[in-house]
């Protein structure tokens, strides 16, 4: 080989090496959403590490929101209407970040959850359009921190709060692409899925060409930046005079937001959640977010370290039936005995219906139709409750009548769920996130001069002038005695209902996911737990349940809110021994 040939060979080898090592980088798009965002904003690569990814989108991630700890629990929320908020540059980007793609699982469509993790069969691109930077001046951020008692309380206990300084909002579109010619079972499901919901739209019109689009209809905050806030005093008083903000970066995400169950508490207890949301014969009643509600409730109370946690969540393939509930509660009873639990808390979320007898029924997935034209019961019980005490004989007769009624298949009386929990031979609290519509109660309430809108959200007094105080007192008497035909509602085991008689249990926004809703009690108990984290008087498990009970004979007299008629003394004694986590 000549010297020239040797030289050419060496040059060829150098070029080939360069192609092997550098060419793939020229044609491979950055697969990380943080880096893609930094590139779209023309920022140095190192700034990508500053972004917190907010997918699925948690609520209250606008600049000015004050949070605490690595879990980013909300102390003081901010929203899009804040006058200190202003908009910066616009941008758009495309990435194939698999972590961002996992947010598809929060939409409640089973095959999307599978697709997000099926890298072998389906490729996924995330497009962000109409991107906007939302910002707040440092001076405004400091004002909010100095005005927040919750932030100062956290700082006094040694934990600097966190404030969101900048947020990135945009419209998200996920593009799913089939890999290879093989259709696959997952892609077959995708091809049949054209969905238009309130929050998102699935377009499978190009599924035969190997492409499905999932468009999120509302703009969301998909990323943000934050700083820790350190209060300083420049005087000898007790109020802070300034705040020092220090940018922070996200820590590696914990794989689980639930503290593992442990039996080390002084009073071991068991946590149970049940969610009904799928109805094969009553498609209009379907509520996928019921599962999110049960998960939120369970994750919040799991912070109090139950000895065991058992969950039964309905799915499209496995809706709830009477037999499934019986089998599940038999497992609960075995678990309670095995762990020597002193008490248990059971949470149920799903549609409910009230019979004229006063029976509250849980609507299960085995229900085939909603009964119409139910026989009207005499309002004698309620009328007597308003004007006089109910006689023992009348009370006994009504109770026997109510508790002998047989409901249609698919409608499980709440008293039967209560009775099955009682078979654990352990004190318990049964918390029901469901409606308590009662036609007779609504009529009597209207006769008192308290009327409502169609959605039972707003109540207005239209009675005689000057009689509002007496009307509220009579409403309180109605609420106190309406459950007298249901003895189990007055027992020493707590039954807490999310809605007072004659009202709906209106859903609330999931505090951890703006694409989803949750039941009112799940939302309230979670917000109360998080808001109380740094209070001097931190709630025990009994306090937490007690504080979301609006009426128990001595509480707030109003048409709306939660209600309980139970004698909660025993539950408070047992659950009161389970202290606030970390205290």
TrEMBL record:
Transmembrane segments: 7-27
Domain of life according to the entry: Bacteria
Keywords recorded for this protein, A-Z: Membrane, Transmembrane, Transmembrane helix
Protein name: Caspase domain-containing protein
Source organism: Edaphobacter aggregans
Source species taxonomy: Bacteria, Pseudomonadati, Acidobacteriota, Terriglobia, Terriglobales
């Amino acid at each position: 080989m000549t010297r020239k040939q040797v030289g050419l060979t060496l040059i060829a080898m150098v070029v080939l090496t360069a192609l092997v090592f550098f060419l793939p980088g020229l044609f491979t798009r950055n697969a990380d959403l943080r880096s893609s965002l930094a590139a779209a904003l023309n920022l140095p690569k190192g700034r990508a590490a500053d972004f917190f990814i907010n997918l699925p989108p948690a609520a209250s991630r606008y600049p000015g929101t004050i949070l605490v700890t690595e879990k980013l629990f909300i102390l003081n929320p901010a929203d899009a209407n804040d006058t200190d908020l202003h908009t910066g540059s616009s941008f758009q980007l495309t990435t194939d970040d698999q972590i961002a793609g996992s947010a598809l699982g929060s939409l409640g469509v089973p095959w999307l959850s599978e697709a997000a993790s099926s890298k072998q069969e389906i490729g996924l691109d995330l497009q962000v359009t109409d991107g906007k930077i939302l910002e707040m001046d440092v001076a405004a951020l400091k004002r909010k921190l100095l005005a927040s008692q919750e932030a100062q309380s956290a700082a006094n206990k040694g934990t600097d709060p966190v404030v969101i300084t900048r947020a990135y909002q945009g419209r998200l579109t996920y593009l799913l692409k089939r890999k290879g010619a093989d259709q696959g079972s997952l892609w077959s499901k995708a091809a049949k899925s054209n969905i238009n919901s309130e929050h998102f739209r699935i377009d499978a019109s190009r599924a035969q060409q190997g492409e499905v689009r999932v468009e999120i209809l509302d703009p969301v905050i998909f990323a943000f930046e934050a700083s820790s806030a350190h209060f300083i005093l420049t005087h000898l008083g007790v109020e802070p005079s300034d705040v020092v903000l220090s940018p922070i970066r996200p820590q590696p995400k914990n794989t689980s937001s639930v503290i593992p169950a442990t039996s080390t508490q002084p009073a071991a207890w068991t946590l149970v959640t049940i969610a009904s949301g799928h109805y094969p014969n009553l498609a209009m009643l379907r509520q996928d977010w019921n599962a999110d509600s049960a998960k939120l409730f369970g994750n919040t109370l799991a912070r109090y370290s139950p000895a065991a946690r058992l969950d039964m969540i309905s799915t499209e393939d496995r809706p709830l039936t009477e037999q499934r509930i019986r089998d599940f509660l038999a497992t609960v009873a075995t678990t309670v005995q095995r762990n020597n639990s002193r008490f248990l808390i059971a949470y149920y979320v799903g549609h409910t219906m009230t019979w004229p007898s006063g029976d509250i029924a849980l609507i299960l997935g085995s229900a085939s139709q909603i009964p119409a034209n139910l026989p009207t019961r005499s309002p004698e019980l309620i009328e007597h409750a308003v004007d006089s005490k109910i006689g023992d004989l009348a009370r006994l007769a009504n109770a026997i009548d109510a508790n002998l009624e047989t409901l249609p298949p698919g409608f499980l009386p709440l008293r039967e769920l209560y009775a099955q929990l009682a078979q654990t031979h352990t004190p318990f609290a049964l918390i029901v996130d469901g409606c308590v519509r009662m036609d007779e109660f609504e009529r009597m309430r209207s006769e008192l001069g308290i009327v409502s809108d169609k959605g039972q959200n707003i109540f207005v007094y239209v009675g005689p002038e000057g009689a509002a105080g007496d009307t509220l007192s009579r409403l309180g008497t109605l609420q106190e005695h309406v459950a007298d035909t249901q003895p189990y509602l007055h027992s020493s085991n707590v039954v807490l209902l999310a809605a007072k008689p004659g009202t709906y249990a209106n859903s609330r926004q999931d505090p951890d996911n703006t694409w989803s809703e949750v039941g009112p009690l799940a939302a309230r108990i979670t917000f109360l737990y998080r808001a109380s984290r740094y209070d001097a008087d931190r709630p025990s498990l009994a306090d937490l349940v007690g504080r979301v009970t609006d009426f128990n004979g001595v509480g707030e007299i109003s048409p709306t809110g939660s209600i309980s008629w139970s004698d909660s003394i025993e539950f408070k004694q047992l659950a009161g021994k389970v202290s606030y986590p970390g205290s």
